[in-house]
User: Fold this.
Amino acid sequence: MRKPFIIGNWKMNMGFDEAYEFIDGLIERLSTQQLDVFVGIACQSPLLVPMIAEFYHEEIFLGAQNCNDHLSGAYTGEVSATILNEIETDFCIIGHSERRQYYNETNESVNKKAKLLLDYDIKPIICVGETLEQFENNHTKEVIEKQVKDCLKDLDIKKCVIAYEPIWAIGTGKTATTAIAQDICSLIRENLRAMYGDKADEVTIQYGGSVKANNIKELMACPDIDGALVGGASLNLDEFVAILTYE
Ligand code: PEP
Assistant:
C-alpha cells in the first residue's frame, strides 16, 4: 500500500519570515486534520538549516531543490549531498525541468545525483517530463521511456520518488487531463517493472503540473498517481492546505 506524498516546491520564493509564518500556519492547520498523505516542502537551501532545526519534530519533510553530482570539490555555488545529509535533509528534488532547461541537467547527471543522495540517506525526488513540442508530436512515450531508463538505472528504487511533470503543464495553468497523467504514470510503472520487477509496485509516483485544490481529487483517484509535486499553489497556505486535505 503506497501512502501518497505531496510536496510543495517553493522554487526561488519565500524568505525567512514568510517561510516561518507559512510553516507555523501549516502545522496549526494540519493539527486538526487526519491526513492520509506525507507532506513535504522543498525550499531554498539556506532556509533548510533553520527550518529543519525549528520543525524537527513536526510531520513535515523538508527538502532541497537540487544537489551537485559530485561529492565535493571546485564547483562554486553548488550544494553537495554530503552537506544535505549533515543538516538532515529528508529529500532532494533532482531533474526538475527548470534545471534541465536553464542549467543543462542531463539524464546522466540526474542518475549520478540520485545515487549520491541514496548513499547519503536522502530521498531523491526524480522528475521526468516531455516538452510541449514532444507532446504535440506524439513523442511523450519515447521521451519518458528514455528518461526512466537513463535516470533510474541501478538505483535502490524503493527509496526513490518519481515525479511525472509534463513541462507544458508547469506554471502554465494547463493540467494534463487525468487520463494523460494516469497513462504516463502507469507507463513509468510498467518501465520500472521491466527494470526492477515487483519493486515497481512500491514506488511512489507523483504527478506535477498546475496542481490545484480544484484538480487534486481526481488526480489522486488515479491508480498509479501517488501524490503531487506542487509549484505555484504551494506558496498560498489556504490553497496548499486544500490540496493536502483533498478528500
Ligand atoms: C513544479 O514546479 O514542479 C510545478 C509542478 O509547478 P506548478 O505547480 O506551478 O505547475
